Amino acid sequence: MQTKIVSVGIDTLKVNPKFTGDDGKPLQVQDLPERLDVLFSAWQEQARERCKPVPTTLTFNDARMTMLPNGVPAWKYIVKNNWLNVACGPRMKHSGVAKVTFSSEYLWFTGAIEEALNDVHGFLMDVFDANLYLQGGQIDLCVDLVGLTIPHDWQKVFISHAIGKSLMLESQKDKEHYTGRTLGTINFSGHGNPISCKMYNKTVEIRQRSPHKKWFHDLWKSKGWDGETDVWRIEFSLERECLRDMKLDDVYDVVRNIKRLWVYCTYTWLRMVVPDAANKNRKRWKTNGIWQQVQHAFDDYGCKMVDALGPLVRERKRQANIEQGIAQVAGNITTLAAWLKDELDPDADALDMFTAAYEKAVERWSKQGVDAQTLVREKKKLYHLDA
After folding, report:
1. What angle do CA 285, 290, 292 make, to 5 degrees?
2. What is the pLDDT of residues 208-263, one digit of tens each?
3. I need a surface site. Which of 12, 158, 286, 298 has the fewest CB within 10 A?
4. How far apart are CA 105 and CA 11, in angstroms?
5. Helix, strand, coil % (nearest 5) of the chain?
6. Is residue 147 part of a domain?
7. Pair (269, 317) in one structural domain
8. Residues 259 and 331 in one domain
9. Beta-carbon contacts of residue 128 (< 8 Å; ≥ 6 apart)
């Protein structure tokens, strides 16, 4: 099959909100405002008592935010929904009052990265009740291809460099990962370094670890994917150190320089070449035709993302969650039937099993004073399904 690009986009975006002074410049203040600390602490205590996330009064993109029972070593609180993850209350010195991660679903859903930034910026200013400067923390740029063949001796056809004050020799951290005898992932440099690249089989990743991302299939099919051929993703990750070295601090400057970043990644930092035994200087080897497509992948990128999926992301994710929920219910019903061996006939059919489960569930709700309809309405709001 002829190699073809089937999607281009931003898969990860992280920002570090900072308070600003009257002059609009960021302030070196990391302390969480007292009113927020008290409010978040109360929500977190509720979550710990229930041993599960609890709904908050915060809403983003028509979805209720929940507070997790515990933070992480670097951050005291984590508030999130399907679209956004906000870690705040720094436990150590940080460059901002919080760390905000856009979910990949939200980035592909929204269709315009600057609109997404504006929405998040407004949400954060409402939460912190202050003007904020958004520093770019990390951005992952990716392209998906069908018909891409990675040779077994891939080290011979890729020329990579580690980023620093000057270009260095090929990274010693470049390595591959296999599933059985099949090449599944190639890493150039490592995660957390200023810049890194990962090439991996996206179809396998979705099938084995991310079935909720099957909405990519619809996008790929619209670009000519046959539904069977493996799709490989080439994904560059640029961390804070890399963005700083490129004089890109403000996240709005980062997204306005997407093409520049992609050019650096695919022309300077990593390149797929055609080996030429007659020329010992590998840097002068001709760029592979496939890689030339990759180099031009973001040529048409603008404020409006070329491959925006809109509501399709939400619908596909809802379908995946329904399938997963049904699988869990089906498994739990048969397990319950086994435990109810003294109450159920050995030849009980599916209707008998579900009837027994229904009676037990209603009895439990009655004892706990739970109104099922009210609970469903609350969960519709929590999972933004009431629209």
Report:
1. 70
2. 888 888 889 988 998 899 999 999 999 999 999 999 999 999 999 999 999 999 99
3. 286
4. 8
5. 40, 25, 35
6. yes
7. no
8. no
9. 17, 19, 33, 36, 97, 98
Separation between Cα atoms, residue 83 and residue 65, nearest integer Å: 9
- Do residue 317 and residue 248 come from a single domain? no
Three-state SS at 9? strand
153 and 279 part of one domain:
yes
Same domain, 287 and 194: yes
Please state the pTM of the whole predicted model. 0.75
- Alpha-carbon torsion, ordered 125, 130, 132, 137, to 10 deg: -70
Lookup result for tokens 């400057």: 253
How many separate domains does the chain show?
2
> Which has the closest alpha carbon to 265: 283, 291, 232?
291
DSSP 8-state secondary structure symbol assigned to residue 72: B
SS3 category, 266:
helix
List pLDDT tens digits, range 315-358: 545 555 666 667 777 777 788 878 877 788 877 888 888 888 88
Please state, as a whole number, how many other Cβ atoms lie within 10 Å of the Cβ of residue 222. Answer: 12
